[in-house]
Amino acid sequence: MAFFQSIKDAFVKNKDKDKYLSGLGRSRKSFGDRLRALSNSFKGIDDDLLEQIMIILLESDVGIHTAQKIVDEFESNASHLKEYDSMEDYFIGILHDFYMSKEEPEIHYNPEGPTVIFMVGVNGSGKTTTSAKLIKYYQERGKRVAVAAADTFRAGAVDQIATWADRLQVPCIKGTPNQDPSSVLVDACRYAKEHEIDILLADTAGRLQTKTNLMKELSKMVRVCDREISQAPHEVWLVLDATTGQNGISQAKEFLEATHVTGIILTKMDGTAKGGVVLAIHDLLDIPVRFLGLGEKPEDLQPFEINSYLMGITKGLEHDE
Ligand SMILES: Nc1nc2c(ncn2[C@@H]2O[C@H](COP(=O)(O)OP(=O)(O)OP(=O)(O)O)[C@@H](O)[C@H]2O)c(=O)[nH]1
Ligand SMILES: [Mg+2]
Fold this sequence. Notes:
The protein is α/β, with parallel strands linked by helices and 321 residues long. It is built from 14 helices and eight strands. It has helices at residues 4-13, 17-23, 25-30, 32-37, 47-59, 64-77, 84-100, 127-140, 157-168, 181-194, 212-228, 247-258, 277-285, 306-313; strands spanning 115-120, 145-150, 172-174, 199-204, 235-241, 263-267, 289-293, 301-303.
């Protein structure tokens, strides 16, 4: 069992803790503050308390299946706790262990050339903004980054990513309107090889998971990349809008059927109280959450880190706030 203090210590050491705190403020209001409110009527671990915890989990979009597992785990281990504070700390420890009980694969970087990363998802989920954020993220880690404007479908999409690329001073490989996005990707892969690019980000068009032809287009994009760069795309990140909560889960399941999604990026976490959806994704989808989008600017992206996430949605830094 992870002790609360170790979770808090890990959080305090995170140099980006303030970003987590401000980005998860809404979720903390609905989750952490309501959890704390239970202290007023706390009489021990009884049915009433378990029901209240269940409601809080459901309202932050943890989902019934996952919430039930968490409450069951808590109920069978926490009966000895007589004080509210120790109960709350214990509960956070349960959430931590629940998350850690599944191992997560590392991001697969290509050791022999460019690593190709696809951004996929439904319309408006935040793919282009997240591509810009990732440009900055990898630049700050000393990587040579390029971006492929593989959304040749929506008017204005190429300009949108090209403007970000310009601002962040990285090359943007563009197609012409309605050009087959696969051919843009072929050009981009060749460019990346010739120019010793470390990370090639492909900003793809928004597609509804129910549109078969668009899903086929995605499969084709995967195939052509693999011909240019061995095992590319090395990562396919499904960008999900966190404000859609549980709907994101069903979206993800359909994307998973069409393509080999290797990671999830949850955007707009700053605009939602549904931050609990991270736990449901982890429990139900077997795909790691790689990053959280915590705002609209390029710096508003954080690699997912369980301790910071838990502190962000529960207590924050309490006395510092
Ligand atoms: N608050 C907030 N807004 C975000 C975040 N990520 C993206 N957005 C906003 O969401 C809107 C849509 O973002 P885009 O990046 O254009 O979404 P997209 O998935 O590329 O959209 P399509 O290309 O049309 O499918 C924009 O207004 C972004 O500023 C986030 O983490 N927080
Ligand atoms: Mg876009």
